[in-house]
Amino acid sequence: MDQDTDGDGPVLRTPRLLLRPWNPADRAPFAALNADPQVMEHFPARLTRAESDALADRIANAIRRDGFGFWAVEIAATGAFIGFTGLSVPSFTTHFTPAVEIGWRLARHAWGHGYATEAARHALAHGFQNLRLDEIVSFTTTANQRSQAVMTRIGMTRDPHGDFQHPRIPPDSPLQHHVLYRIDAATWKHHSTPEPQ
C-alpha cells in the first residue's frame, strides 16, 4: 500500500485518490456536501456551515490524536476535495462497541465512479496491515443500499444478529434501525489482493 506521512498523519495513495489529513480549504466543499439533501438522506438532518466546520475539526483532531480517522479524500489528478473515507472509533455505546468502524461520505458529483470502494479498500488495508486491527465494522440505516453495496464490495459481511437501534437517533425516527457489517483480519487477508509495496 502506497503511504506517506505529513505532520498531521498518514497519507494513503490509491490509483486515483489521496486520503490525507484535512486542510482549511476543505471546509467549504465539505459544508456543501453536508447541506445536500441527497448526500444526507440517511442522516437525521443536514448540517449548517458551523456544524459542518465543527465536525471537520473533530475529525482532523482525531487523526492527529490517533494517527487514523476519516481522511479527507481528493482526486489526485485535480486536487479536488470530494469528501471523506476512513476509520473511526464510534463515540456511542452499543453491543459491538468498543470497535473501529470504516465509513465514507462523498459529494454527489463523485458518486458512481467507484471512489468510495477504492478509498475504502485502502482504508481497510491500512487498518489491518498498519494498525494491526482484529476486526473492522461498518453500519448504516436499513434503507441505505448504496453504502451497503460498498460494504459488500470491500469484502464485509452483514451480521443480521448485529442489527441495532442507533442510540443517537430518536426512537420515533425511521433512521434509528441500523444494519451491521463486519470483516476480520483473517477474512480480509484471505480475500484481499496484495497491495504493491
List the helices and strands and how they pair.
Blueprint: E1 2-6, E2 9-13, E3 17-20, H1 27-34, H2 49-66, E4 70-75, E5 81-88, E6 101-106, H3 115-130, E7 135-141, H4 145-153, E8 157-158, E9 164-165, E10 177-184, H5 185-191
Antiparallel strand pairs: 1-2, 2-3, 3-4, 4-5, 5-6, 7-10, 8-10, 9-10
Helix pairs in contact: 1-2
Features:
197 residues, Aminopeptidase, alpha+beta, 5 helices
SSE arrangement, N to C: EEEHHEEEHEHEEEH
Provide the helix percentage. Answer: 25-40%
- Summing up helix and strand content along with how strands pair, one would put the structural category as alpha+beta
Largest sheet: 6 strands, antiparallel
How many discrete domains? 1
Briefly, what CATH class?
Alpha Beta
- The appropriate CATH architecture is 3-Layer(aba) Sandwich
CATH fold topology: Aminopeptidase
Distance between the termini: 5 Å
Q: What Rg, in angstroms, do the CA atoms define?
A: 16 Å
| Beta-strand segment tally | 10
Question: Which ranges are low-confidence, i.e. pLDDT below 50, for 5 or more consecutive residues?
Answer: none
CATH superfamily: Gcn5-related N-acetyltransferase (GNAT)
In what order do the strands lie side by side in the largest sheet? 1-2-3-4-5-6
